[in-house]
């Protein structure tokens, strides 16, 4: 047990400091404001939003798509890095799993905010029809959620067992909880074997599940006739975009946790350097699909496509469009090419930029398309020609984002963010390697 | 504004014609379209005659078997999924006759208890390209043969019936709005807020009337199956003073605008009938006759309220007219 002492002291969950408490309270306040706005929306109807018969999907749907995209982070980091045997992933995988769980839970919740009749949710199960892409979503989101939770929980079992012992005398109540969560894991050889096999299976399962989730999300749009959505590029476009959003969020969260918990010893510049290269790769891929998505319609110049492109490139949405392309993709790519750009602080700023860019990117995918249907918008009030979220929509959207951060915060508070057992094993392996060499 | 005056003269005479019971009087043989839409067995003339009073006070004599026994009977959501037997409804809109009188819109709004901005029938001002002249285009729901809205509905709240009509069951609709985004013709509307008229439970709800509507659900043009069951034309076709809208049955190959009854196939063949956005493969059941040999100059359509004209201000042609001070 001795070699665990330092690790446990460093990595065991501990109480928040003053900043942590203020942070949590502010999140709760934002959530309460959003809840009040949502209750008001239920009472007054969706008329409190700025949506109309034309722009009938707004920030709720784009926010939903953002959460779905961010939940992809566990697929790209945990599963893909595991299969490619990239051992540098160890200290950051758990954070990725936490983000993924929080994001997919929020995706499931936010989609309901947009429903005109949330009281009839059960109709999806009573009268569900397999032809509808919405039903595909209803199937894949809970599936992905379940696999994500398992992917977070299974590798945690040995750590929970360790924490049970660690807190036995100081905090008996907490220790009891960890004991229950550890599900009698004691590290016998048989347990270790089953444990390893299970993790292996889950981390393979999360790959097709993640790809299906992103693809179904893309198909929600590409199965429709609308210009800007009716594109065969959508599936790959969404998957690569999800990798960008996910890794961007991971970088930002890792930086904050590293600072708050003083984990500089475990999450080093080396890890940021690797993450930076990974993010650059994702951004380049996404840029490639963006070029496909925008350049070809511009080239063929079909009438409707030109209307759509003009709206984005030089019209109402131009400032956002260029912010997303330049700020959210090109600047990060250039910065990440330099070694200095992959140091922790610049990486944090790039991560934030990428996440904000990813959020607005979803907004640009969802809303402008609806404003130029095949038949011109005529004979309706002037306000139906445009869309920008109302105060209600912003309050509710910020509340969902805050709720996602709160889930992450709570998990970070009670779960060791860097796997203790795994780190110990790796250190041991390193030691024995040294011994055998010398 | 001054349209209100002309409202009476033109339409009443036609209403009389549209009364299903009058069908036996019209000359063409195939007019059983407007008779007895609900009867499932073939009509045998019983020989027994019944005298009836039409709305404008004329006495007519019709065969007793032509009378629909329960025209106003409630069609429940479950029953409304079946459709009217042996019918295949179709609409033909003659663009050469439309002058934006908006009677179809107003009549539809009255019939479906819609508010000012809620329109199932919309009138667009379309200019296909710079060199062609613009025209008024009344646009209902196209009741497609391959309706994308029905495919994407997650709960089957919107459905396609055997008689070709696409309806919505607002007791099943969850308000996801996916059908609205799927419709390439923007035919669907959403009830964004609770309204007093939704609470009116005097009439039990039927998808065939869409009354009372419900908050948070989708609505659209329904081809008025409740009127069809009574042997009447839809509100829009009844109300049009120009006879723009022909409605009928593809199976019988007959359409009528209330004034003249013609063969559907002949009408669309001889007049170059087409369907809007044919290339999408949705196979609409609404056909258009091209705006050739116009009966009215386009400007006649601007004889409407100021705020209605204002709705077309984005059309280059309208901007041009405004510059010239014509409107």
Automatic annotation (TrEMBL), chain A:
Keywords: Cell membrane, Membrane, Transmembrane, Transmembrane helix. GO terms for cellular component: plasma membrane. The chain crosses the membrane at residues 21-39, 59-83, 95-113, 133-157, 201-222, 234-257, 278-297, 317-338, 345-365, 394-412. The keyword Chaperone does not apply. It is a multi-pass membrane protein. Pfam families: NrfD. The keyword Cell membrane applies. It is found in: Cell membrane. Its main location: membrane. Belongs to the NrfD family. This is Fe-S-cluster-containing hydrogenase. It comes from Yeosuana aromativorans.
From TrEMBL, chain B:
Transmembrane segments: none annotated. This is 4Fe-4S ferredoxin-type domain-containing protein. Residues 89-119, 132-163, 164-193 form the 4Fe-4S ferredoxin-type domain. The keyword Transferase does not apply. Residues 1-29 form the signal peptide. Keywords: 4Fe-4S, Electron transport, Iron, Iron-sulfur, Metal-binding, Repeat, Signal, Transport. Gene3D superfamilies: 3.30.70.20. GO terms for molecular function: 4 iron, 4 sulfur cluster binding; metal ion binding. It comes from the Bacteria.
């Amino acid at each position: 047990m001795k070699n665990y002492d330092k690790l446990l002291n460093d990595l065991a969950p501990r109480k928040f400091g003053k900043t942590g408490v203020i942070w949590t309270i502010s999140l709760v306040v934002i959530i309460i404001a959003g809840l009040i706005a949502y209750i008001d929306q239920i009472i007054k109807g969706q008329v409190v939003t700025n949506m109309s018969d034309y722009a009938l999907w707004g920030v709720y749907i784009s926010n939903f798509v953002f959460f779905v995209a961010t939940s992809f982070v566990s697929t790209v980091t945990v599963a893909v890095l595991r299969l490619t045997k990239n051992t540098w992933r160890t200290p950051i995988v758990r954070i990725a799993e936490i983000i993924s769980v929080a994001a997919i839970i929020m995706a499931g919740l936010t989609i309901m905010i947009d429903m005109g009749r949330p009281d009839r949710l059960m109709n999806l199960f009573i009268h569900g029809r397999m032809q509808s892409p919405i039903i595909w979503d209803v199937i894949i989101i809970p599936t992905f959620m379940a696999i994500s939770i398992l992917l977070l929980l299974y590798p945690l079992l040995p750590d929970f067992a360790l924490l049970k012992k660690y807190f036995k005398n100081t905090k008996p109540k907490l220790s009891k909880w960890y004991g229950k969560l550890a599900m009698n894991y004691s590290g016998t050889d048989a347990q270790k074997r089953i444990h390893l096999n299970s993790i292996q299976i889950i981390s393979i399962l999360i790959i097709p599940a993640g790809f299906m989730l992103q693809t179904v999300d893309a198909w929600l749009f590409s199965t429709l006739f609308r210009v800007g959505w009716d594109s065969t590029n959508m599936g790959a476009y969404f998957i690569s975009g999800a990798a960008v959003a996910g890794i961007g969020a991971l970088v930002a969260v890792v930086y904050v946790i590293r600072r708050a918990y003083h984990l500089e010893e475990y999450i080093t510049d080396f890890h940021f350097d690797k993450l930076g290269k990974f993010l650059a790769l994702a951004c380049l891929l996404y840029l490639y699909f963006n070029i496909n998505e925008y350049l070809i319609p511009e080239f063929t110049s079909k009438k409707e496509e030109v209307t759509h492109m003009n709206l984005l490139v030089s019209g109402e949405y131009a400032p956002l469009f260029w912010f997303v392309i330049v700020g959210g993709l090109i600047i990060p790519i250039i910065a990440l090419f330099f070694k200095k750009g992959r140091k922790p602080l610049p990486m944090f700023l790039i991560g934030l930029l990428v996440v904000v860019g990813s959020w607005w990117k979803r907004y640009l995918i969802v809303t402008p398309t609806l404003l130029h249907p095949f038949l011109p918008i005529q004979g309706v009030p002037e306000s139906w020609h445009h869309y920008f979220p109302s105060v209600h929509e912003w309050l509710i959207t910020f509340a969902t984002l805050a709720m996602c951060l709160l889930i992450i915060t709570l998990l970070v508070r009670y779960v060791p963010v860097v796997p203790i057992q795994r780190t110990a094993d790796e250190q041991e392996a390193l030691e024995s390697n040294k011994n055998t060499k010398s | 504004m001054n349209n209100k005056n002309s409202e009476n003269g033109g339409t009443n005479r036609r209403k009389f014609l549209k009364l299903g019971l009058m069908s036996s009087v019209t000359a063409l043989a195939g007019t059983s379209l407007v008779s007895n839409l609900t009867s499932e067995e073939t009509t045998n003339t019983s020989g027994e005659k019944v005298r009836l009073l039409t709305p404008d006070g004329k006495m007519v004599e019709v065969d007793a078997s032509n009378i629909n026994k329960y025209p106003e009977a409630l069609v429940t959501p479950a029953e409304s999924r079946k459709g009217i037997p042996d019918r295949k409804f179709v609409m033909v809109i003659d663009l050469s006759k439309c002058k934006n009188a908006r009677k179809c819109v107003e009549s539809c709004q009255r019939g479906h208890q819609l508010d000012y901005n809620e329109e199932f029938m919309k009138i667009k001002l379309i200019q296909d390209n710079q060199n062609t002249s613009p025209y008024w285009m009344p646009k209902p729901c196209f009741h497609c043969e391959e309706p994308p809205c029905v495919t994407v509905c997650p709960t089957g709240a919107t459905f396609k019936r055997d008689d070709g009509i696409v309806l919505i069951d607002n007791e099943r609709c969850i308000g996801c709005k996916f059908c609205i985004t799927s419709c390439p013709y923007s035919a669907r509307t959403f009830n964004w807020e609770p309204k007093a008229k939704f609470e009116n439970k005097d009439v039990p709800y039927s998808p065939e009337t869409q009354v009372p509507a419900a908050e948070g659900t989708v609505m659209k043009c329904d081809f008025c199956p409740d009127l069809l069951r009574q042997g009447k034309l839809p509100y829009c076709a009844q109300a049009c003073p120009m006879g723009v809208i022909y409605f009928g049955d593809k199976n019988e190959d007959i359409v009528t605008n209330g004034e003249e009854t013609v063969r559907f196939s002949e009408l669309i063949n001889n007049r170059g009938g087409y369907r809007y956005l044919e290339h999408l493969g949705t196979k609409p059941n609404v056909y258009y006759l091209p705006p050739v040999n116009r009966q009215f100059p386009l400007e006649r359509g601007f004889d409407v309220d100021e705020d209605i004209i204002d709705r077309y201000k984005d059309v280059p042609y309208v901007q041009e007219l405004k510059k010239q001070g014509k409107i």
